[in-house]
Amino acid sequence: MISYTLLLLALLIPAQLNMPCGDRDEMVSRLSTVYGEHRVGMGLSGPQIMFELFRNPVSRTWTILRTAPNGTSCFVVSGFSWEVFPDGIEI
Predict the structure, then answer these.
(1) Residue 6 CB contacts under 8 Å (≥ 6 apart), including other chains
(2) Distance between CA atoms of 82 and 61, rounded to whole angstroms?
(3) CB 28 within 8 A of CB 72
(4) Residue 88 has pLDDT above 70, yes or no
(5) Could you give phi then psi for residue 5, rounded to 5 degrees?
(6) Residues 52 and 74 sit within 8 Å (Cβ to Cβ)
(7) C-alpha 16: how far from its chain's center?
(8) How many independent structural domains does the chain possess?
(9) pTM for the whole thing?
C-alpha cells in the first residue's frame, strides 16, 4: 500500500515544483528532533530516486522525502492523522 502511494506521488508532483531541499542527513535529523518522526517505509521510483515515509506514531504527523543519488533530499508532502492498517486489510 505504501509503495503504491509513493509511486502515485512521484507521478503527480510536477518537476518544477519548488520544494525545500537539502542534505538528507540534516533533513532526517530535523524530522526526528523537531517533529519526532522516524522512517517507517521507503520505495524506489526508477533506478535513482528514493522516496521515504517518516511518521510520528503519537502525534500521527507524517512526511515524505524524495532523495536523489547525490544525497540531496526534498520535502514532497507532509500532513497529519496518518493511519496504519494491518497487512491484508483493504479500506
Answers:
(1) 41, 43, 45, 51, 53, 64
(2) 6
(3) no
(4) no
(5) -65, -45
(6) no
(7) 18
(8) 1
(9) 0.73
> Which run of H or of E encompasses 33?
helix 24-35
Q: Three-class SS of residue 83?
A: coil
The rounded distance, in Å, linking the Cα atoms of 48 and 68 is: 6
- Whether 29 is covered by a domain: the verdict is yes
Q: What is the pLDDT of residue 19?
A: 63
Task: Tell me which residue range forms the domain holding 54.
Answer: 2-10+19-79
Contact 70, 24 (CB under 8 A): no
What are the distances in angstroms from CA 54 to CA 15, 16, 30, 79? 22, 24, 11, 11
